[in-house]
Amino acid sequence: METWLRLFLLVAVAAVVCVSAEESVTHFDVKPNGQHSHHSAKLGSTTCVFSFATVGGTNEDWQMTIRKNGDGSHSCVIERPMKGSYLFFQKFSASLMGLELASVEAHAKKQLSASEYKVDGDTVSHVDGKFQSGLSALMITSKPSKSKEL
Questions:
Q1: pLDDT by residue (tens digit) across 18-38?
Q2: pTM across the whole model
Q3: Is the predicted pLDDT of residue 82 greater than 90, yes or no?
């Protein structure tokens, strides 16, 4: 009997761990045509939106991962997987619609200086005159929600 109880508890704990973080992954092309473009993805009622304009080179395959974390916060990772980008970003912004941002990490060949972008509520965006046109990964995380969904 004790073995069955242990097995049941092990399966129950594994199930809780598996559902504590949900995620959705989408792929999109970043086209260096200088035109304003955007990509969005949804996980439940949460939407992540990435807007940008780029020049130089050819199309790149990018990926957006939106995740609900165990503490009720949400993360959105926008990146060129497996390699850096050689495109020049004229501008960018990313938001977790309606969720106040708690943290931002932005990378090109190295981590971007905090002076290159600004955070305003649910959105992070480039700073004109400070942003140096490099971006290969961006992660934004919201503050944990006050009431966890069941």
A1: 444 799 999 999 999 999 999
A2: 0.83
A3: no
Place of tokens 């981590």: 111
Cβ atoms 49, 40 nearer than 8 A:
yes
Query: Average pLDDT for residues 46-63, to the nearest whole number?
Result: 97
Confidence of residue 145 (pLDDT cuts 50, 70, 90): confident
3-state SS, one letter per residue, for the chain = CHHHHHHHHHHHHHHHHHHCCEEEEEEEEECCECCCEEEEEEECCEEEEEEEEEECCCCEEEEEEEEECCCCCEEEEEECCCCCCCCEEEEEEEEECCCCEEEEEEECCCECCHHHEEEECCEEEECCCCCCCCCCEEEEEECCCCCCCC
The answer to whether the beta carbons of residues 76 and 24 sit under 8 Å apart is no
**Residues in Cβ contact with 46 at an 8 Å cutoff, skipping those fewer than 6 apart:** 66, 68, 74, 96, 97, 99
Structure tokens at 68: 């609900």
Gap between the Cα atoms of 53 and 51, Å rounded: 7
Q: With beta carbons less than 8 A apart as the criterion, state whether 26 and 73 touch.
A: no
